[in-house]
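A common beginner's mistake is to predict each chain separately and then try to dock the pieces by hand. The better habit, illustrated here, is to supply every component at once so that their relative placement is modeled jointly.
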Amino acid sequence: MPKYKVIAQKLIQKINSDDMKQGDKLASIEELMKYFNVGKNTIIQVLTVLERQGYIYQVRGSGNFVRKHRRHGYINIMETSGLRNNLQGFNLDTKMLDLKVIKPTTEVMANLNIDEDEEVYYVRRLRSIEGRKFSVEESYYLKDVVPYLNQDIVEDSIFNYLVNDLKIKPGFTDQFLRVSKLNEADAKLLNLKAGDPTIFLESIFHLENGRAYDYSKVLYHYEETQFFIQGTGTMNL
Amino acid sequence: MPKYKVIAQKLIQKINSDDMKQGDKLASIEELMKYFNVGKNTIIQVLTVLERQGYIYQVRGSGNFVRKHRRHGYINIMETSGLRNNLQGFNLDTKMLDLKVIKPTTEVMANLNIDEDEEVYYVRRLRSIEGRKFSVEESYYLKDVVPYLNQDIVEDSIFNYLVNDLKIKPGFTDQFLRVSKLNEADAKLLNLKAGDPTIFLESIFHLENGRAYDYSKVLYHYEETQFFIQGTGTMNL
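With all components supplied together, the output reads:
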């Protein structure tokens, strides 16, 4: 792991600890250089990562300060490294409902920007948190990028498999959120009634090179789901 | 306006035009330097802004490429410069329901991180898009930061007033989203029924120096509202 990531993770642990609160001042760049025994460029890279991820904010001429904004149980919608990584500390269970290779539908072709000849993996999963039904997920993975999936992978963390085993480099993500109403089948899976509201989240995940490789549609249990959305707000036009 | 902002706005206009699509390559840094007659640092600043705002993505060793991800009518939840700036091209109407200076409630004290002696402006507004009821908004502004508000300001754009007249420098924003159910009074305002679902969005806006100055609670008409959430995804840990 590159040096800046190791240092960033150490600082995040420190910030997450109970003795730091919003507005607390971070050590100066010079102090951090000395403490971690690295150069100025590495520390600046670390601080840029921490700011982008919403752990700190920079005040020109004053220094860097802690952000403590999370609310317990809220899902960070900008954290696209998978639900398992997002909800650490919670008891998460994933059940595979379907897994097969298919030809893309018109909707999938449009969202992944592919033509009808490209095959995709179709995955359908039911997820529970602390034993309570939480979400029904449908995902379409480009088979050209994700050549193999099985039940073990799908019921653990697909994201970790893609990054650690397939060495995929995730890039940017587009997400679309609205409230919809559940049909009979999905409602039954979530222990709700047909017509009950649901948060419907569509996500398009891209590789670092800009190619879309995963289109997901998730129905969230409206009573179990809360999202946290952080904006860095810096350099607004 | 600083040079980099002027150039960024010109490039955004270009990207928004119909003849650019997702994946189209941008001119190189050298070409942009020559075209706009500025130095390398300015162009790099411009590209950083465009990437953060989701207009482009950078591929190491290959260049910069256009992102075209927006869906018509979706609100960009990361764009915190006010609904009026967010929904340009739509017919937006804002009606003031209440405006007064009050002592903060416990909830407001917690979210703005203030004590009971600090006064706040309380604003309640009903917003319509294209003649259809859209949202009921309650906002609490720190009177120390926003010393004056009136009906004209509140029914136009509070954000523009803060930035252009009060010269406030907005910083980062924390937002919390969940589905809730409407009570009788709010349902009536939105032409819905009590118990109907609503997207409940809480936002805490901070100044550049990290001080919270605005806590807002918005109830959105669930059939009229769709959010777009963009992730840059770069430098994930």
